[in-house]
Design goal:
Helix content of chain A: 25-40%
Number of helices of chain A: 9
Strand content of chain B: 35-45%
Largest sheet of chain A: 7 strands, mixed
Number of helices of chain B: 6
Oligomer: heterodimer
CATH superfamily of one domain in chain A: Vaccinia Virus protein VP39
Distance between the termini of chain B: 40 Å
CATH class of one domain in chain A: Alpha Beta
Number of domains of chain B: 1
Strand content of chain A: 15-25%
Shape of chain B: globular
CATH superfamily of chain B: YVTN repeat-like/Quinoprotein amine dehydrogenase
Largest interface: A-B, 55 and 62 residues
Structural class of chain A: alpha/beta
Chain lengths: ~290, ~525
């Protein structure tokens, strides 16, 4: 009885807080406690997700408003306004506003966005996208980016990061064209300990083919985990996949992204606190064999 | 009640038709030839299931006619529960599908090699792929019976007729040889069913089976290696630590019970979607090469797969099936059928599903060529208010007078829709052909110089207006429309105890692919 009431108050507080954060002039960083959500989501279920049917129909302009291209209105508007209606199906649906760049870096399962925020100033030329399946966590990152942009308005920082709610295991090719990405980060993924749940792991031989599809030859997939068996699993599956090769340790340690991945992700910090181990592995996308 | 015919496959000069779990054959004059019956174990039901049922699957004796089919055994909930139970292995209960005998799963798919010498069938709840040798005149000789790790949803054969590609409910595509080579059971299999271990996805550069199974994860390869993957370093809360302790104890016990029921035949994981697969087909491209061998052309094979999450994926054929060439994206609801255009239009693919339209693709370039409405014509049959959505269940294309005719079946709509694929690859609705009941399948026999002869399996509407109540009808194009004849002298049988509702659930399962929009 009492518990229920408390719960309701909590929820109410949460909603109030988040509604306040949505207001335009807020530049205060969001507080995590109002955005918590249970750590797991079933990637097989039909969440109410929003995704474009085709990458060309993805509207990036709201995520990266500073990169929107002002297209002159007199562009190719169809000459005849009275085109034959209804029966003829429109093959080219409304094209969303274009942006001057394409997303090149993706953080799959970005969580509360620590990596995104740390990466953003280090690669100001690249558009970085975080993808997260949990709704309220996504909202947190949205509010965090919004606040950071407002705080760093003068310097123009954090304009190159965005976040989306998405189930990447199903819908990666809906967002990205073939070979669009240069870097993909998979940081501290859900380990799915039970053998029965291994199919839900974010790295698998069949899913690796999809990463190979969106990553350009020469591009890198970054993985880090504190679970030794999961590390082994990821190495095994990327190694076995003909489209990837493991990046040597020297090269790995020389990559500035690796240091950031180790220290700046929320999970990374947590593992640090608990004095756990962090296992890193990088994989390079190879050219497809002759066919 | 008597089951309707629900699948038709033309194989050389012979027509095969499935009725429940039986497959009947007819000659080119549509006279009945013979029947293959799903082998049923003679179990005494009071004795419970017998264990060694796998031993004699190929008995010729017709089984007892009346079989209680468990409600819902073919469809979702039950199957799902069985899987769940199996995976969890709580207690010592045998897994549902391991209990053989007292059920006869429906034939879910019929496929034929291009030379007509082999017929491949899939049965539902037992997830089994059957391969038959066909003598050319309608007699089947069962060659093999292979139970897949997950239920196959759609099959296809590679162009060399040597390999079956099976697309399953869990989103994986497996390759298995049409004719299994006898291999010792110890070296078998690359795949364990539980996780459909993607580690089996074989690098084309690697050797045969050994290397693949060697790459299996420790936990699945050797039962003795089962240990919790979490450690005190990776879980931190008090509760999780306690759970870990419990897990360690129970794992030791469970490891002994858990018998990995891996299939005992050659099976290669080629590719996978994280979504239920609904259709698979192969396409080929022919390109000129500099060399003069093989007539200066090079044929490449591609695997095209469609899923419930609106995707159509084009992957390279074996042995490079891990390379995704492109996607054909544009559907906004599930895709349920794929159909390659015949007659030198190898690059054209027609797809249908839960969208209001059929889509026409250039799958080689990944481009949408056009769309053709279905819903608007369905409204013409069932009335505007009754139809708000469609579920395409069949798309059948055949050549006719140099053009391409496409016949479409929509679930629970008593008509065939004829479209024409024009030279410019646009698809146009030409006519709606009413049928005496809802069509369940359509095939055609191309008649040189004439309109194709259509073979249609229908679920008779049971009307008493004098129209035929046969489940197997033939449509011939006459001068004044389509002349309809029903195939007479159908063999007796297919009479089982099943309620109308259960039967409909089994026959009309496509609409269930649609996503519900009211949960998050």
């Amino acid at each position: 009885m009492g518990g229920k009431k408390i719960k309701k108050d909590k929820r109410q507080k949460r909603e109030d807080y988040r509604a306040a954060m949505r207001k335009d002039d807020i530049s205060e960083l969001p507080r995590k406690k109002f955005y918590r959500q249970r750590a797991h989501a079933n990637p097989f279920s039909d969440h109410q997700l929003i995704y474009p049917p085709h990458p060309d129909q993805m509207d990036w302009s709201s995520l990266y408003p500073h990169y929107v291209v002002d297209e002159p209105q007199d562009q190719p508007t169809p000459p005849a306004p009275e085109t034959p209606s209804s029966e003829q199906h429109d093959l080219a649906p409304l094209r969303p506003k274009r942006i001057s760049k394409e997303v090149e870096v993706a953080d799959i399962g970005c969580g509360f966005g620590g990596l995104l925020i740390a990466l953003a100033p280090t690669m100001p030329e690249a558009l970085i996208l975080g993808l997260e399946i949990r709704v309220s966590v996504t909202h947190f990152v949205e509010d965090r980016i919004k606040a950071l942009r407002a705080q760093n308005h003068e310097a123009g920082l954090y304009r190159n990061v965005g976040v989306l709610r998405a189930n990447t295991m199903k819908f990666l090719p809906n967002f990205f064209r073939k070979a669009q990405l240069a870097k993909v980060f998979i940081c501290f993924p859900d380990p799915h300990f039970k053998a029965r749940k291994h199919k839900q792991r974010i790295v698998s031989a069949t899913l690796n083919s999809e990463y190979a599809y969106v990553v350009r030859p020469g591009g890198i997939v970054y993985t880090i985990t504190d679970v030794p068996d999961l590390h082994e699993w990821m190495v095994q599956h990327f190694d076995a996949h003909p489209s990837f090769e493991r990046v040597s340790e020297e090269e790995q340690e020389a990559d500035p992204c690796v240091a950031i991945m180790r220290t700046e992700t929320e999970e990374g910090k947590k593992v640090e606190r608990h004095k756990g181990q962090k296992h890193v592995a990088l994989f390079r996308r190879l050219e497809d064999p002759a066919w | 009640m008597v089951l309707p015919y629900h699948l038709i496959k033309v194989c050389g000069n012979t027509v095969f038709a499935a009725q429940g779990s039986d497959i009947h054959s007819f000659n080119s004059g549509l006279e009945y030839v013979s029947t293959w019956k799903y082998p049923v174990q003679q179990t005494d039901e009071s004795n419970g299931p017998s264990i060694d049922a796998q031993e004699s699957p190929a008995q010729e004796e017709p089984p007892t006619k009346r079989r209680k089919v468990e409600p819902g055994q073919e469809e979702g909930p039950k199957g799902r529960r069985a899987k769940y139970k199996n995976g969890q292995s709580k207690g010592n209960k045998p897994a549902k599908h391991d209990v053989p005998g007292n059920e006869r799963p429906f034939v879910q798919g019929l496929y034929a090699t291009t030379d007509g010498r082999h017929l491949v069938a899939v049965t539902g709840s037992d997830k089994t792929i059957w391969v038959f040798e066909h003598d050319g005149v309608g007699n089947l000789n069962q060659l093999s019976q292979r139970a897949m790790p997950k239920r196959p949803c759609s099959l296809t054969l590679t162009h060399d007729n040597l390999t079956i590609l099976s697309a399953d409910k869990f989103g994986d595509v497996y390759a298995l040889p049409l004719l299994p080579s006898p291999i010792p059971t110890t070296t078998t299999t690359s795949a364990t069913p539980g996780a459909a271990t993607p580690s089996a996805l074989s690098p084309p550069t690697s050797g045969p089976d050994e290397s693949r199974s060697a790459s299996a994860t420790p936990s699945t390869a050797t039962p003795s290696a089962i240990k919790p993957q979490a450690t005190a370093l990776t879980v931190h809360t008090k509760r999780n630590l306690r759970a870990l302790e419990h897990q360690k104890i129970s794992l030791g016990r469970r490891a002994l019970q858990e018998q990995p029921n891996r299939p005992q035949f050659e099976l290669t994981l080629l590719l996978g979607h994280v979504s239920m697969l609904t259709a698979i087909t192969v396409g080929t491209t022919t390109t000129a090469t500099a060399s003069t061998e093989a007539g200066g052309t090079r044929v490449r094979e591609y695997i095209v797969t469609a899923d419930r999450d609106e995707h159509i994926r084009v992957s390279r054929g074996m042995p490079q099936a891990h390379v995704i060439e492109r996607f054909c994206l544009g559907h906004e609801d599930f895709v349920s059928r794929l159909c390659m255009a015949p007659g030198g239009r190898a690059e054209v693919l027609i797809s249908g599903g839960g969208d209001d339209d059929l889509f026409v693709w250039d799958w080689v370039r990944g481009e949408l060529l056009g769309r053709a409405g279905v819903l608007e014509h369905v409204k013409g049959v069932v009335g505007g208010e009754a139809a708000s959505k469609v579920a395409v269940t069949r798309v059948f294309a055949c050549g006719w007078e140099g053009g391409v005719e496409v016949f479409v079946v929509v679930e629970r709509v008593p008509a065939l829709f004829r479209y024409e694929l024009l030279e410019d690859n646009t698809l146009h609705h030409r006519e709606t052909i009413p049928t005496p009941g809802n069509p369940l399948d359509v095939e055609g026999i191309e008649v040189p110089g004439a309109a194709p002869r259509l073979l249609v399996a229908v679920y008779p509407s049971g009307s008493t207006d004098g129209s035929s109540n046969s489940s197997f009808i033939v449509l011939d194009k006459g001068e004044s429309g389509w002349r309809q004849t029903s195939v007479e002298n159908l063999p007796a049988g297919g009479d089982i105890a099943i309620s109308e509702t259960e039967l409909q659930k089994m026959l009309y399962s496509t609409e269930t692919l649609r996503k519900l929009s009211d949960f998050d």
